[in-house]
Specification:
Layout (H helix, E strand, L loop, with lengths): L1 E6 L11 H8 L4 E6 L12 E2 L9 E2 L1 H11 L3 E11 L2 H8 L3 E5 L8 H7 L5 E5 L9 H12 L10 H5 L17 E2 L2 E2 L9 H19 L14 H5 L1
The chain binds adenine (ADE).
Length: 237
């Protein structure tokens, strides 16, 4: 997968060198380039923003440098982090993991002139993506989040592909709690069922814990489950 990130703060993306993302880059599964938007400015002040038409607070990113950047880097699936975007979810991470080319446009201030997105949409898919219902200073941290979620789904990045199957959100439910040794820590034992060796009981317990956790913490996820996601035993639980 080839990824280009355009930002006015390239240093913000330094964590892309680290850990599993760094490993995916080293093995050639992932090719990432981070670009400074100001490379595509032509005035001496290297201006990237201006006051909003119609008035209001803050500044808006001017279209010209973005247009030049996308002319040079595109086409690819353009991802624009924004609190006004569609919610970033595990299914969206899976969809993006199937793309050969992603281009991230990091907005700052009040956002990017809408014509940049409208113009790009004539040549490439454009998705505005929100991490959640809160506002960040800009899109850089959101790019790190989206890329981490996407890159770990690329074949060959995770050592153990099984860990993708049971994790939270893989089946629309939250994952059950996990334990390791020692069997007793302070006054807290590991639940007996997990030490029983009875795989049927363990699977049932994990499933019940998943359902309970989801019902308590994220009841909003339950109506979104497809009908076949819940079996006869689940309904009893
Ligand atoms: N930029 C600013 N706020 C954001 C959010 N909540 N999600 C994604 N990008 C953002």
């Amino acid at each position: 997968m080839r990824v280009d990130v355009v930002t006015i703060f390239p240093e913000y993306l330094a964590p892309l060198e680290l850990s599993l993302i760094g490993k995916a880059r080293a093995t050639g599964i992932l090719d990432v380039a981070v670009h400074d938007l100001r490379t595509w400015t032509s005035d001496v002040h290297r201006t990237v923003d201006d006051t909003p038409y119609g008035g209001g607070p803050g500044m808006v990113m001017r279209p010209e440098p973005w247009g030049e950047a996308l002319d040079e880097l595109g086409p690819g699936h353009l991802i624009v982090p924004s609190p006004a975007g569609v919610r970033f979810t595990q299914p969206l991470a899976h969809a993006l993991a199937g793309e050969p080319r992603l281009i991230f446009a990091c907005g700052r201030y009040e956002g990017i002139d809408q014509r940049v997105l409208d113009h790009a949409a004539e040549r490439m898919p454009v998705t505005e993506v929100s991490l959640g219902d809160y506002v960040l200073f800009g899109g850089e941290v959101a790019v790190l989040v989206v890329l981490e979620a996407v890159v770990r789904l690329l074949p060959g990045v995770l050592g153990n592909a099984d860990s993708l199957i049971e994790e939270s959100h893989a089946d629309g439910l939250l994952e059950a709690p996990v334990y390791t040794k020692p069997a007793q820590w302070r006054d807290l034992p590991v639940p007996e069922v997990l030490r029983s060796g009875d795989h049927g009981r363990i699977a049932r317990w994990r499933r019940d814990q998943s359902l309970l956790r989801t019902a308590r913490r994220r009841p909003d996820l339950l109506p979104a489950l497809p009908p076949q996601a819940l079996d006869r035993h689940d309904r009893a639980a």
